[in-house]
Amino acid sequence: MKQYNAIKAKYPDALLLFRVGDFYETFGADAVKAAGILGIILTKRGAGSESEIELAGFPHHSINTYLPKLVKAGQRVAICDQLEDPKQTKTIVKRGVTELVTPGVAFNDEVLVSKSNNFLCSVYFDKKQIGVSFLDISTGEFLTSQGNAEYVDKLLQNFSPSEVLVSKQKREVFKDTFGKDFHTFYMEDWVYQSDYAYETLVKHFNTKTLKGFGIDELYEGIIAAGSILHYLGETQHNKLQHISAISRIAEDEYVWMDKFTIRNLELYNSTNNNAVTLLNVIDKTISPMGGRLLKRWLALPLKSIDKIKQRHEVVRFLTKDTTVLQKIQNHIKHIGDLERLISKVATGKVNPREVIQLKNSLEAIVPIKTLASNCNNESLKIIGDMLQSCEVLREKIKETLNEDAPVNVLKGHSIAVGFSSELDELRGLSKSGKDYLDNMLKRESERTGITSLKIDSNNVFGYYIEVRNTHKDKVPLDWVRKQTLVSAERYITEELKEYETKILGAEDKILAIEQQVFAELVVWLNQYIKPVQQNAYLIGQLDCLCGFAQLATHNHYVCPIIDESFDLEIKDGRHPVIEKQLPIGEPYIANDVFLDRTTQQIIMITGPNMSGKSAILRQTALIVLLAQIGSFVPVKEARIGLVDKIFTRVGASDNISMGESTFMVEMNETASILNNISNRSLVLLDEIGRGTSTYDGISIAWAISEYLHEHPAKPKTLFATHYHELNEMTETFGRIKNYNVSVKELKDNVLFIRKLVEGGSAHSFGIHVAKMAGMPQQVLHRANAILKKLEKSHSSEALTDKVKTLADDMQLSFFNLDDPLLENIKEEILHIDIDTLTPVEALMKLNEIKRMLVKKKRM
Predict the structure, then answer these.
(1) DSSP assignment of 319-387, as one string?
(2) What is the mean pLDDT of the chain?
(3) CATH architecture of 559-771
(4) Would you say the CATH fold of 559-771 matches that of 120-253?
(5) Parallel/antiparallel/unpaired status of strands 163-167 and 184-187
């Protein structure tokens, strides 16, 4: 326990798994935590004594089952192993922490999700800017950037790190700026020093400067990145050859989407548990590398027309040549997670079966390289030429390892036959042992004339010859008696002892040689880290583009035209997610949208609730987004002037946990839009101002529309509203146009046609929606009555007067219902002369009314 306490003192904030014999044990508060998370039994050691302490443990071979559960629960886990063989020491076994696994630093396949990165992040607060860095230790991707709080917040939302490192002094600042939803770990302030960070990075990359990585000017970004490498050292992760480069997230290269937009458009997660996200619909990738890269592309859409067109050209080629598409996808199916496999090689955590998987994955790349190199498409040819066949690497693995090598090298049979003559000889000896013993038994039986001889072994004195008591007088003099049983005697011979030494020595030697050969192979593989990482990235790209081609073919997407204009022209646009959710056979109602900066800058969309205003707004943003990540889009045709910022303010959502009302959240998001618009922005506003009173709301919505119209940037805007008063803006502002989502009014119902047509809408049909929701009849009747009176006037004073005049009618009663029986009861009650009514007559009258109601109920 002294040893345990000394090690625990070094890792006070980690849950310590302490190896004792064949178990990992936890003690005290750690045991209580572990038992709760893992569902294992909590016991006590030294119960009732002063040294009483809680205890919970599990077998050491179950580490891969229990460790992921602890890490997923947000625990930092220190694994303390025995550092020497217990047989070699007479004192207490030396122990030490061999690895510290945290939510952001994990290699275990059970912790990691194949199509998602597991980012460790560090945030550094300076006076003017914030530095931020992301590292996925399982793939070797290392990124850094810097900017204001809004930009860093967006990156945190995009990359959703599993763990965030922050200076202890900035604990409260971080929570106030970015909220409390992240797993955070607080480090000493001195780690966030520019000289120390720079030196740490330069030393790791073995360079003199960081200019080659294009991050030399990122003062805050470098400090954030340096602190990540420091943390890896602190958590016993020192083999980091696979982290071979660091790159800058260049803010000016990608479309800006603030965190509200990312959330509102439900790109890769949603606040609703069962909601289908855009990623669910467009992800046709097959490989883990492709899945992770697609998320990155979605988070960072391109602003370079040339790069976008390159992707479109590849997708166009693959949609036309479906044979090449199918062949490439069939080969990608056989490629494992190259990035994570080579990272395991670098960190020495790879097993024989994974090395075989690495070899098989690289073999599947060879036909892809041939196919891509011979394609009639420039971008595919470049990918084909850049793919490395890694022939020497594959041959080396093939000649060293068995194709069906086990997961654990200690199980034996990892090394291929023919690789080591010494190993083959020892294996031969081990295998031929049974034949050797059979021959010896036959020979000795003939020599002694004892037909019932038996050769066996036990743990006490190894191999022996057993003779039944009836034959013990025939035993030769050169046999040495070792044990006497009730009905037999056991002997050993010189030959048997020699054989035993040979055979047992062979088993140990075989294991030692296999371990050594495998360790040497892993070290040798390290020289191929960069080529394999390059292959992984190229296969990821190819997988994404093949996925886009498959998506376009299956869902009838079209290649958009991207140009330098400021126009946005969509014909028959569809919402990529909603169209997949419709019942079979029900067509999606497609819509046209046209926006420019000269004639139709702002479209004011009115129309009833549930008619599809929000869907039109979202689909416009998603079409632009899909086009600029290189995908085809769900339209008949589209021409998109390059967009550099997408802003959406869709739907109302309380942020009560942060102490903000719906209206406050709405105003925060809208302010963020108005303060950041550019001439290539696309702004989508839905129901602005509905979080406050009607006239406040109308005033704010009007002022916002006016601001966007008069702003020098003239951003393209779609504004959905139920304030019909805003339709009047077209009379004053030339570039605002009214549209509405059409409906068909039937006698007492409404049919939603979901088609966007020119002109404003006069009704909202909210009461019809209430009816569809199953609102009680009396509420609907009352609402209609109030609506008719209110619609006669729009002015505030008149409105107040109207409401006052309605006060007498306000008592909702069941007499408002259109029911003849209730009308009769009403008449009965009104004609009663209460002054002349005796108590008995009153009771009889009440009983009569009751009978009428009971009769009605039975009917």
Answers:
(1) HH-HHHHHHHHHHHTT---HHHHHHHHHHT---HHHHHHHHHHHHHHHHHHHHHHTSS-HHHHHHHHH-
(2) 86
(3) 3-Layer(aba) Sandwich (3.40)
(4) no
(5) parallel
- Do 636 and 558 contact (CB within 8 A), yes or no? yes
Whether the CB-CB separation of 328 and 312 falls below 8 Å is answered with no
- State the average pLDDT over residues 345-351: 90
Q: Please, is 218 exposed, middle or buried when counting C-beta atoms within 10 Å of its C-beta (0-12, 13-18, 19+)?
A: buried
Class (C level, CATH) for 283-406+521-554 = mainly alpha
Region 720-738: mean pLDDT is 85
The domain locations on the chain are: 2-101, 120-253, 283-406+521-554, 421-518, 559-771, 776-814, 819-858
Nearest to 718 by CA among 564, 565, 568: 568
Q: Which residues of 161-192 are buried (b: 16+ CB within 10 A; e: fewer)?
A: bbbbbbbeebeeebeebbeeebebbebeeebb
Alpha carbons 665 and 122: distance in angstroms, whole number: 27
pLDDT (tens digit, 9 = 90+) per residue, 410-436?
Answer: 887 889 988 888 888 888 877 776 677
Of the candidates 652, 719, 711, 734, the one whose C-alpha atom is nearest the C-alpha of residue 683 is 719
Q: Which long-range CB contacts under 8 A does 421-428 form with residues at least 24 apart?
A: 422/513, 423/510, 423/513, 423/514, 423/517, 426/506, 426/509, 426/510, 426/513, 427/506, 427/510
- For 120-253, which CATH superfamily applies? MutS, connector domain (3.30.420.110)
Spatial distance between the Cα atoms of 702 and 726, rounded to a whole number of angstroms: 6
CA atoms within 13 A on the CB side of 299: 22
The upper half-sphere exposure of residue 211, i.e. CA atoms within 13 Å in the direction of its Cβ, equals 2
Residue 660: pLDDT band (50, 70, 90) is low
The torsion angles phi and psi of 273, rounded to 5 degrees, stand at -60, -40
The Cα–Cα gap between 199 and 207 comes to: 10
Position 399 pLDDT exceeds 70: yes
Mean of pLDDT values over 812-819:
51
Q: Which long-range contacts link 392-395 to residues 24+ away (Cβ below 8 Å)?
A: 393/359, 393/362, 393/525, 393/528, 393/531, 393/532, 394/359, 394/362, 394/363
For residue 724, give Cα distances in angstroms to 409, 481, 729. 74, 109, 10
For 37-74, what is the HEC assignment? HHCCCCEEECCCCCCCEEEEEEEHHHHHHHHHHHHHCC
**Per-residue model confidence as pLDDT tens digits over 564-588:** 999 999 999 999 999 888 888 888 8
d(CA 6, CA 8): 6
Classify 421-518 by CATH class.
Answer: mainly alpha
Question: Among candidates 210, 211, 212, which has minimal Cα distance to 229?
Answer: 210
| Superfamily name with CATH number, domain 2-101 | DNA repair protein MutS, domain I (3.40.1170.10)
For 100-146, the pLDDT digits (tens) are 888 899 888 878 888 899 999 999 999 889 999 999 999 999 999 99
> Residue 75 in contact with residue 15, Cβ under 8 Å?
yes
Task: Report pLDDT for 609.
Answer: 64
The pLDDT score that the predictor gives to residue 657 is: 44
